[in-house]
Each structure stands twice: as C-alpha cells, then as structure tokens.
Write a structure and sequence with these properties.
This protein is α/β, with parallel strands linked by helices. It contains 14 helices and 11 strands.
C-alpha cells in the first residue's frame, strides 16, 4: 500500500512539472520535435503541434526566405504554436533568423550548436521562449545562467552531429537535474513509452524526439529512409567522423561505408547538407547518407504523429503504475 501511495505522490508531482513545461511552451503533452535541419517539413511540424506537442522547423542551412516560406506553410496547417531551431554554428544566417523569428512572432526558438547567450535578450524582449540544447552539466549551468527558459539535454544516442563529449542520456539527465532548476527535456535514444517513462524517472519533464518522428506518416522524407528505419536492428547506426574531431550518428549505407576523410574540413565537405538531402529526400544512400539515432532499432512501424504520442503517454503512465502495483 505504501508503494502505491508513493506512486500517486510521484504522479501528482510529475503532472505538476509537466504542467510547468507545457505552460511555458504552450503545449498539451511533454514531447517536442528536434530541429532536424532541412527535413522538418511543414507537414511534420504541424502534425506534432496538432497532436499536442511542439513542432519545430529546423532551419539548418536554409536562407531566411526559405524558412519564411516554411513558416507560412506550417501556419496553413496548424493554428498551434511551433518553434524554430537555429543551429548557431551551422547556419550562415543565424542573426537574420533571429530577426525573422521576432518578425513572425514565433512562440519558441531552440538554439543549438553554439553559444545562445548573445541572442537571448533580444528574444526575451520579444516575448519568445527559448530552448537551449546542451550536452554536459557545464553547458547546462551556463545556459541557465544566461537566461534560457528550457533545456534539452542530448546524449550521444541522438542522430546527426553530436557533442564530442559523448555522454549518454542515462547518465547526462540526472547529473544535469542536480545542477539546474529550469525544465529539462531528455533527448537521444527515446522513441516509445518506455523511453518517456525512463526520462521522467531520471528527472526530465519531457522528451525531444527526432529519429522516431521520421518514421511517421506525416514525415515527408523518402520512403526508403522510413523503410530503412523500420528494418534497422540495434547495430544499424554508426558514428562517423570521430577520427577527425566530429561525431555524427548515421545509418549504415554504401556512401557511409566508403567515407575515408583525411581531415575535418574534408569530412565536413563529404557530409554537408547536399549529401544528407540526397539520402533523406531522394532516397539515395549510394550518393548520400541519412542521420539516425540509436532508437532506430526500436522502430517497427510508421504511425501518425497523434497515434505515436497517444501510445507513448498511455504506455509510460501504464508501465509506471504497474511497477508500483507489483511492489505493494
């Protein structure tokens, strides 16, 4: 009986913290979409927001004009809030994209791949909530001190370019929770209710999904990319670039297998966005590649975003309740 009372106490606390996060981001479920530069189409962004989460347009290397068109297309599909992700060191247009977010009255801006501090006061003055993507306790503390509203703590399990620190989600989240007070979302290796429940138990208030959202009906990537994810096993992803100082997690494929970079500059040229687009949007993994996280091995279907979110929430709460019942 005592264990079950503990469960209900935990459940109330979890709902309170979920409410804090959801209020900040104007969402109904504690799930947000990762940036996924250049492939987060309007249809997927809108579907995430319409399902109660926070959809995100990943600006990647797109020009402000291209991003503006995506914002307009997304607004034709949803009246709910969505975010822009600006990868500071990746985008050659970071400052212009900040101005665009303000002009377009975007509700939330996610800042990754660089120091968010120079942009925060301008966004705060415009009433925009900010998310900082971090990969260590030090980065988390600095981001909170700079004034970020929400943190995404991303482990090396995540897709695409990762921190060379290579901390895992399981170890990263609880350490960050010991040092910050603002809401934290877990990212990396999460794609079902078990992952959401685990993130809650580690102290996070929600999760960010990337790879799992690629394998949804609303995603506009090539069908070959989705099939590859569904067929993937636990060993289908690999890290490339470590030998030249960059960590990128991708799916195995002919192009990836043939990569032999001799320098960081050569590696970045061989993995620039044109090759990612070739793989992700054209389905050609001989001439290009696709990003994918370790969660790929858990993906076995292509649901709608709404079905995925409902399933995750029901399964997460159900598993936690069953665990406490067995301890009575």
């Amino acid at each position: 009986m005592q264990s079950y009372l503990v469960y209900h106490s935990w459940q109330r606390k979890r709902r309170e913290t979920m409410s804090r996060l959801c209020t900040k981001l104007q969402i109904d479920v504690p799930i947000i979409q990762g940036g996924m530069g250049n492939i987060s189409h309007a249809e997927l962004t809108a579907a995430v927001s319409n399902a109660g989460g926070l959809g995100t347009i990943g600006c990647g290397t797109m020009t402000p004009a291209e991003v503006k068109r995506l914002i307009e297309a997304t607004r034709r599909l949803t009246s709910r809030p969505f975010a822009l992700n600006i990868a500071i060191r990746v985008s050659p247009h970071a400052e212009q994209l900040i101005e665009l977010a303000i002009e377009e009255r975007i509700s939330v801006v996610s800042l990754s791949a660089g120091n968010p501090a120079p942009f925060l006061s301008k966004l705060r003055e415009a009433g925009i909530q900010t998310i900082g993507v971090v990969a260590s306790v030090k980065q988390a503390i600095k981001a909170e001190q700079a004034g970020v509203d929400v943190l995404v703590a991303e482990g090396v399990e995540a897709a695409g370019i990762n921190s060379p620190l290579e901390l895992t989600t399981m170890t990263l989240i609880p350490q960050i929770m010991d040092h910050v007070t603002i809401p934290v979302l877990a990212a990396g290796g999460i794609g079902d209710g078990r992952g959401l429940a685990a993130a809650w138990m580690l102290g996070a208030e929600g999760v960010q999904l990337g790879t799992r959202l690629i394998a949804t009906q609303e995603s506009r990537v090539h069908e070959h990319y989705k099939r590859h994810l569904v067929q993937a096993d636990d060993l289908e992803t690999r890290i490339i670039g470590r030998e030249v100082g960059q960590v990128r997690r991708v799916l195995n494929g002919p192009y990836v297998a043939a990569l032999q970079p001799t320098s960081l500059a050569a590696f970045q040229e061989q993995t620039n966005e044109s090759f990612h687009i070739k793989g992700a949007l054209e389905g050609d993994e001989t001439e290009g590649y696709v990003n994918a996280g370790l969660v790929s091995g858990l993906i076995d279907d292509v649901p709608t975003v709404a079905e995925l979110f409902n399933r995750m929430m029901d399964d997460a709460f159900g598993r936690i309740e069953r665990m406490y019942r067995t301890l009575q």
